[in-house]
């Protein structure tokens, strides 16, 4: 399995995806085709945390009046399944590895994974 979960309207996602040869990867645009319970379970199995998958920058946080600091793992799981913007993106997932988000350290690791400098 090699999948990338991304948002097509996100400039950062598009820039990151453009850096790699994704010919044999399944590309999933999460607005058109939201993540499933099984996919979220697979992501959680690799990260050991729903919070690690949760985007604290989601526009839905302010709209819903959520207190990010008060969210539990269960809350994060439910929100991730409820609305696509709660997923930190992009998410690259293989049978053995997962790369979540666009922070500098994650992108460096992802570049090493793809053999890109």
TrEMBL record:
Domain of life: Bacteria
Pfam families reported for this sequence: ArsC
PROSITE patterns documented for this protein: ARSC
Family, similarity comment: Belongs to the ArsC family.
Record's protein name: Arsenate reductase-like glutaredoxin family protein
Organism: Chryseobacterium aquifrigidense
């Amino acid at each position: 399995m090699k999948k990338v979960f991304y948002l097509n309207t996100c400039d950062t996602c598009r820039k990151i995806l453009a850096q790699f040869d994704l010919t044999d990867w399944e590309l999933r645009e999460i607005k058109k085709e939201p993540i499933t319970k099984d996919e979220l379970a697979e992501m959680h199995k690799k990260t050991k945390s729903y919070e690690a998958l949760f985007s604290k920058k989601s526009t839905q946080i302010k709209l819903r009046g959520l207190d990010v600091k008060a969210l539990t793992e269960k809350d994060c799981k439910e929100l991730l399944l409820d609305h696509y913007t709660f997923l930190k993106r992009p998410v690259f997932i293989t049978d053995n590895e997962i790369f979540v988000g666009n922070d500098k350290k994650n992108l460096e690791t992802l570049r090493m994974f793809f053999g890109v400098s």
